[in-house]
Amino acid sequence: MNNPENPQELLECFDEQGVIIEPHTRTEVHAKPLQYWHGVVNVWLVNSAGELLCSKRAENLSGNPGKWQTYFGGHIKAGKSFKENAVLELNEEAGVEIDQNNLFLIAKGTNDADKHYFESYAYLFNGSVNDLKFNDGEVTEARWYTMGNYWAERNKNLENWCNGCKPENQELIKNWLALSTQILGINVSNISKKSALEKVVEFLKSDNQYKIFTPNPEMVVKAQKDEYFKQVLNSGDLNLCDGMGLQIFTGIKRIPGVDFMLEVCKLVAEQGRGVYLLGSGNDKVVQGACQELSKKFPNLKISGYNKGPVLQEVCHSEQSEESLLSERKGSFTSVQDDSVIVNEINQSGAAVLFVAFGMGKQEKWIYENLSKMPNVKVAMGVGGAFDFISGKINRAPLFLRKSGLEWVYRLIREPKRIGRIFNATIKFCYLVFKRKIL
Q: Which domains does the chain have, with CATH numbers?
């Protein structure tokens, strides 16, 4: 038996506090008695039906030959993060190309006996087994199992399995899937406003960073021709249903983005945290929005504001995910260096960032720049919210908003929006019905 992995490959190593130290080879890491803490990452592939993709290990492997496993993964290579390594392992073992931002963290911790730190993720994969390519020879076949069938098969032939998916992990995966519904390939969070705000509280307490997007029918239509935008939208940690069309076809109650922004401001004010307003392209509008927010929430800390750069969006038509990811740095043409604004936001210390560049631009900008602003815990795309809050544009009467007819009011006030309204109503419905029929 043999192992295709290089025994001299350098692995990321850590001290007992989890601090990265100099790397060591696989041979050194596995030498008994164990001396070096190392990292391990696992990824469960699941589909929208809640099924788990299980795979069979090759017969020639030195570890667990010919046995079935529930996840893909491996040791963290030197210089790679856990997520980066998850992407590599999925590509090497199953030929699946993914964006690390779409990985959902299920569990993390330490295994004292084996001296490793681990992170376990779930990834939504709605492809078929025939789409898989077992590039490195570690895996020879795969099958979809319902969670119930997996346990039945495992209990029947326990000796044929080498790793599993614990009930508590299955429950987390199940809850994650339940929180997300797809329409025309776009994730929409199946969540109430109250629960969404509770999520924001959790986000602000976390050491991680989170993206909040507000998909509406117009955005969903746009994503059908802009594959990169679709990937960006689906990377959102909270994708709020913002459109009556989405509510009708998904059954998820609509949460208008501007209303949720105000609720987040109220929450942030109560916590004594700061917000930063970026966008609108108009100094008076963004200043006016800051002034109105200060009046409405006296305890809210406005850490800073900027009207934002002039951005010209580049639309990526359907391509391979690998090429899209390699080109994502070219999503905009800007007359202002993003680093200037990023530095301003970092110096402000804001925990929450509201970005109002307009749909498409704002989501891509957040996606590409959030990691450069470590103090920002939550970044949200808010579209025309600053216009409404500042009073530049009046919102529709409450009864029209509640009935989902705000678009009629805006069309009457702004006839030039006819093209956008057409996409959000007629074209959106056509695409949904077309998908259902086909």
A: 10-173 (3.90.79.10), 179-427 (no CATH)
